[in-house]
């Protein structure tokens, strides 16, 4: 009877480890992809965000936009 219980525990332990490693790999790849998405922003999008935040004026925006394009 105890041998049967140990077999079930081993089966569930292996399945639990599989789920654990899938979650770990997902988190690691998600972190790396998130960093990559930030670096893939276009310069014009960054400029628009800076204008929206109020970091630059409309005139500065137009000058920088002309220099980018």
Topology pattern, helix = H, strand = E: HHH
Name the beta content range.
under 5%
Beta strands, count: 0
The structural class is: mainly alpha
Net shape: rod-shaped
Which residue ranges are poorly predicted, with pLDDT under 50 across at least 5 consecutive positions?
none
- Radius of gyration, rounded? 26 Å
SS element count, helices: 3
Q: Largest sheet, described in full?
A: none
Tell me what the structure shows:
The protein has one domain. The model has no long low-confidence stretch (mean pLDDT 81). It is an all-alpha fold and 69 residues long. The chain is built from 3 helices and no strands. It is rod-shaped and about 70 Å long. The longest helix has 38 residues.
């Amino acid at each position: 009877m105890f041998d049967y219980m140990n077999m079930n525990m081993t089966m569930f332990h292996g399945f639990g480890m599989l789920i654990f490693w899938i979650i770990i790999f997902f988190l690691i790849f998600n972190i790396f992809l998130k960093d990559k998405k930030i670096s893939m922003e276009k310069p014009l999008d960054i400029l628009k965000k800076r204008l929206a935040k109020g970091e630059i004026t409309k005139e500065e925006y137009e000058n920088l936009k002309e220099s980018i394009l």
